[in-house]
Amino acid sequence: MSDAPPTTGLHHVTNICTDIEETRSFYEDVLGWHTVKRTQNYDDPGTPHYYFSSTPGGEPGTTVTYFEYPDSQGTPGPGASHHFAFGVEDEATLREWRDHLREHDVRVSEVKDRTYFKSVYFTDPDGLVFELATQGPGFARDEDEPGSEAIDPFERGYEN
């Protein structure tokens, strides 16, 4: 056991986008989130920094922020995020989300059984991968042989 002081969990995640208005529209119009703060990157004055939250108040743990860098183009690799996941209550809600995303012309995967939960994958306007994942059955469930049930989320592609 580490002697590190405790944390309270995930506070927020910050990403980079090329068009803050397109990203704002995606979060508000497609995901139904709230823009809770518009400011600048204090480490790079003049660079927009927007805060989006699944709650109107933008409490820690519910917030994703973006810096706008119009000319940026990244390649996933060490030091970069592969994807991040938002939770949903159950598989019925997951399927509702899949239908909702399709209605908004967002390419989304079929429902994937991840052993510990079920999920779907899609991307934002800049190609950042999102996952929506059910609460259960939970991480305490193990595969008979670890890694034997690994599935590439994109092996079957997206459907509209």
From TrEMBL:
PANTHER family annotated for this entry?
Answer: RING-CLEAVING DIOXYGENASE MHQA-RELATED, RING-CLEAVING DIOXYGENASE MHQE-RELATED
Q: Does the keyword Cell wall biogenesis/degradation apply?
A: no
Question: Any idea which UniProt keywords this protein has?
Answer: Dioxygenase, Oxidoreductase
Q: Which residues form the VOC domain?
A: 9-135
Q: Which Gene3D superfamilies match?
A: 2,3-Dihydroxybiphenyl 1,2-Dioxygenase, domain 1
Name one molecular function that GO assigns to this entry: dioxygenase activity
Annotated region Disordered: the residues are 137-160
Under which name does UniProt file this protein? Glyoxalase/bleomycin resistance protein/dioxygenase
Annotated membrane-spanning segments are none
